[in-house]
Write a structure and sequence with these properties.
The structure is a single chain. The protein is mostly helical and 316 residues long. Helices cover 78% and strands 0% of the residues. The chain contains 15 helices and no strands. It is globular, with a radius of gyration of 23 Å. It has one domain. It starts with a helix and ends in a 6-residue tail after the last helix. The longest helix has 32 residues.
Amino acid sequence: MTGLKSIAIGEATLCGFSPFDPCVGSLLPRFPSEKSAMSLALKIILTPTLIGLASLAGRRWGPAVSGWLVGLPFTSGPVAFFLALDHGTTFAAAAATGTLTGTFSEVFFCLAYGWCALLFPWPVAALSGGAAFLLATFALRYLTLPLVPTFLFAVVALTIGLRLMRPIIDRAKRATPAKTPHSSEPSSINKPPSWDLPARMVISTVFVVLLTAVASALGPHLAGLLATFPLYATILAAFAHQQQGSLAAAGVLRGLLFGLFAFASFFLALAALLPRVGIAPSFMAATALCLVVQFGALWVLRRMMRAERAGGLAGV
């Protein structure tokens, strides 16, 4: 690429024009930088790999754990990484703060989907959850707070969201047929179609590529907010809802709320460290903190699930 660009500049000079003249420079061919090409390649390889692994793990341990698992920043994390590569650490740090603010939107998504799932099929519930997310995001784009208060408010919002999810699960339980004594899991779970996993990987990759491509036009705050769109959680919740009913969907959503504590911790560390220590150390430290919080949340979630099984709320 560099050689071809040098030839083009040389030809312009031989013809008596300066390649640095704005009029002439605009006529020269545009070549993608090696950095941009590497960034695109990483997006195409890293994003579907992460999403694929998360999907397989979620299938292994059920809807609640799969919801907890997608609390990890599988989509927004790569978005933040590529924003740092493409636009610099200052831009990425501001976007990370916006992503942390987007935790509020995810709480609205979970509650809207959960309540609608009690009355309507999965397409209506998914659209309602998405609409709630977008309305909250539109409001939050005008809200900019310092990093630490944003994190504390996010933790409070998640705690309130978990409390409000309790009556949703109770109502879904009452609407779900009782299981036999020999069954602690749903009796019939259809095997996912062959296209399911590739579709998840493709959709998530397209989302990451498009969002990072338009990030400059959106600005760091709005780009960070939109990076939290629960695309993957929507897929999991809708699939659980369609196959197993509103109780399984509520389990996914509650698991997601538990997982979002680690999500918020990840972006707290990222926003604080990126301008100070650079990309690699920031992401390593944020990932370490995220995993510690995530496994702590899993411990709490599993204890709650065991208590509910003992009390007759199995399958959530």
